[in-house]
TrEMBL record:
Keyword Lyase: no
Pfam families attached to this UniProt entry: Glyco_trans_1_4 (PF13692), Glyco_transf_4 (PF13439)
CDD domains: GT4_GT28_WabH-like
Glycosyltransferase subfamily 4-like N-terminal domain ranges (all copies): 14-173
InterPro entries: Glyco_trans_4-like_N
Keyword Transferase: yes
Name of protein: Glycosyltransferase
Amino acid sequence: MKRLLIILQDLRGGGAEKMMVRLATALTDAGNDVTLLMLTDTGVNSACIDPRVKRVELHSARSSRAVPALARFLRQNRFDALLAALTHVNVVAIAAAMLSGTLARLHVSERNAFSHDKHVNPALAVRTAYLLAPLLYRLIPNPVICVSRGVAQDLVDTTITRAQDVTIADNPVLDNDFRDKAPGRPKHRWLSKKTTPVIVAVGRLARQKGFDVLIDAFARLADPRVRLIIFGEGALRTELLEQAVALGVADRFDLPGYTSDPLAEVAAADCFVLSSRFEGSPNALVEAMSTGTPVVSTHCPYGPQEILDNGAIAPLVAVDDPDALAQAITVELTLSRDANRQARIDAAARFVSACAAKTYLDALLGSQSS
């Protein structure tokens, strides 16, 4: 049994946090002693933590101020391997590992397209982290774990990071027995008592997710019966609602907020759409595919191209092109729901937790993992 530590800022509702909670469970299932450490506080994903996984909260006011506390914790508790997630957390973890003499056991991970993600948060501490990270990635002994080939290549192409400084590991998106599990019952009224075709999307209400383009595409659909639901929370809520009003589709559009069981909602829908401008490896797309529901995705950097086998599994359309998106959605709503269903499910199976756990253990422990 190996002692493993996963370092996060908190456990809010983001995809990276959700995947790290799932990874903690998968690594525990593989026979390891796993601890989740949050630099600040907990969050909504704490409800999903397996009771076997230990948790530690440093309660730092900001992640950037957590270096001394994290260094003390690392000196006082010996782990066989450490894994940090998200760029600003990686920088904090590297500094703390240097101070505590544990750098040889530290691994960091990039969860998104670095060249795009660095522009999202204007906070000085975050911008500084993005400036420092590539230099640190050249200096640390272990390669950066990236969630897709695209994320790894982007890091190499747009920073001083070298090819030997990166490696790849898939997200643990799905339960190992996902094929055998029936989806839960949807809670949204348009899905629980469905009378018309319904399109569903899931994600933060942020510019990255391209929901403004999706609403534009939705307004261009010829069938006036079709409805659109976007599950998620975020700063653009009011703006998206106003856009729906301006386009005359407000009565067929809903923003119900965060859902605790997105698979149940997506499984009942007629089409799932990923409209993102950039990603790392979109977990929502994989989850949607696992239900067999038809999907449409933008050809955004990075992830969808790899997941959908260059469009062989499901349509890929240009980013920021509402006409193309509307056309692809129309085609999917016209086809039989079972068209290419098994191909979608089979492609999603690559992202089961057991496969991810093995890949991460190999990356974290090398020969010690066997």
